[in-house]
Specification:
It is built from 28 helices and eleven strands. The chain has 729 residues and is mostly helical.
Amino acid sequence: MTSTVTRAPEVEPAAPRRARGMRADIQGLRAIAVALVVLYHLWPWHIGGGFIGVDVFFVISGFLITSHLLREVDLTGTVSLPRFWARRARRLLPASLLVLAAVLVAIAWWVPRALWGQFAREVIGAAAYVENLLLAADSVDYLAASNAASPVQHYWSLSAEEQFYLLWPLLVVLAVWLGRRWGARRRAIAAMLALVTAGSFATSIAWTASSPAQAYFVTPTRAWEFGAGALLAVLPAVVGRARLRAVAAWAGLALIGLSAWVIDGATPFPGAWALLPVAGTVLVLWADGDHVRGAPSGLLRLSPVQTVGELSYSIYLWHWAAIVIAPYALHRDLQATDKLLLLVGIGLASYATWRWVENPARGARVLIEGRPRLTFAFAGAGMAVVIGAAAWMSSTVEREVESSLELSQRLAQAASDIAPGSAVQPPITADPSGVGSSVEAPAIQVVCIGAATVDPAGGCTSTLAAGEVVPVPAAAKLDSPEDCLGSKGSRDFDVCEFGVPRADSRGTVALVGDSHAYHWLPAMDDLAKAHGWHGVVMARASCPFTPADRTLDRRVVETCATFNERVAEEIARRDDITMVVMGAYQETRFAAPAGADERAYAQDSFRAAIDALPARVSDVYVIRDAPVPLADNVECVERELRGGSTDPGAGCAVPRGEGLQLDVLAAAAEQVQRATAIDLSDLYCDADACVPVVGNVMVYADQGHLTRTWVHSAVPQLERLMPAFSART
């Protein structure tokens, strides 16, 4: 006979939240979150979703801050906003501003001046806690899409968090006021938080679907993650079966790990996918498993884990800045050994910051016992110093840029008017370092720069001395045509005009295609004005003129297709358009049908687009795309110039076979009788290599778009290769 003993359910109530110190499981979660982020940034191919560590931080912040606010409401009946914000400032700003100051020093010491303007702008955004808004704006600005990753880019999440700290207590205060009127303060707070959280989640779903790059950074799409933690804080302290809480804690950790495994850079995020790490974090926080048998507390309470959790804020601040700056200091990409040493350095810097900056500032008696305005004064002074230093750095480069662009404009305009082989003036004196030029150039009558120096019809000797480059690398990005390139993903259809007025013209030329067609606008404008043509620009970023779809997100594909339909309709409608000039990025990828060769499909599609043009369009010119340069070609040129090179292009060259790839649009043009493929490859490349500096001119504004100065210098060659401009009607 077997006896059965019935055990009472095992129940382990959690200690009251308001009476406890920092929970070990929360410190463990912080350690996991920062480890995921750091490992993702160092080895993204091993942990493609490590960026979800930021979402874990957001939930923890929402939970802790709301718990603190509720305790204050319970004790005092309200929230002291100045004291709350002063505590946040003491906790976050000292370390944050220290890292920003160190970054500015590192930029000045190691980073090419071509990047100073962008990096300084982002340091200012980080110091003012609006970095997320800057990155969101840049994500929809095509000309900013090629920006190098800045050493403070990770401050976007701190900016979102600070914006949460600014607005969330205001909502709590409003809810407390409403609760007094209704006689249900706690429920009013819960209702307010639930409403905002639900609205933010809906916004995140919609925004991520329509503009994922922008949605990633903006606070409205992230507020629900803070709200999830906040709503958990409103609930009573958990009291339940230990087994259930242990299972919940393990399940939460598993969800966080699963998120890092299944989510990657191609996942629409945050949106619904962010539910995985958010739910996982909420489960661990709800379980409150520090003293629950069977919970992962043994893992989370390990001393190394707790130490990393304690240092997590400083680690997060230092890690990305170090990862971005180190390659500039080493003049090469990071190797495996470099990354391991970098981890050690990040750990040491983080400990020093925590030991001598974070803790002393957080516990400074003079600030704690003083009025909040004293904390605000110190915080404001620190922010002013960092912002002022960044603004000075930016303005220093800006003056050099303005001077260089002015000289480049004068040279380019003169170069576009000359014929190859003309006599040239003695070299113009400019800054021999090539980094900045403030020298007033003499009156320019005849110059030879850029493409003219390697013109197959007879090149000329460069007007500028060896070692001079126009525009200087820091100005290259601004040496681009403006205002007429349609934005990627936009539903607008704008037509820009150039050349002579339509009423006075001999005909109209249409410049169509993507940004690699658009960058030829300065030359088309020169030719149109010289030969009496009117011109229209119908170009859009990432949108070559073809019925073939690109391998991009759905919105870009749909809006590009609609845009190209409108372009075709406009050309068909206007009987004055008799010439079309086209161009396209040679590395564009297309969504070919299953089993079809992508290049053949793309070439056939381009040919179909040309064939579909009205018969009155007698001349179609396709300009072969420029060679693909080094991704950091602009920065490379500056490094060469700083090293004293008199031929900086040679040090930043790419093999001809790598730079010149198959241009399917140009290949399609060769198959159509009325189309002409214009190949300027020999202007950029010799038999072996393609260079980013030709005839003292920066060829590229960024990773592939041409500078206005270079385009102007190629006008004489284009004039010969486009006889329709000068042909008699």
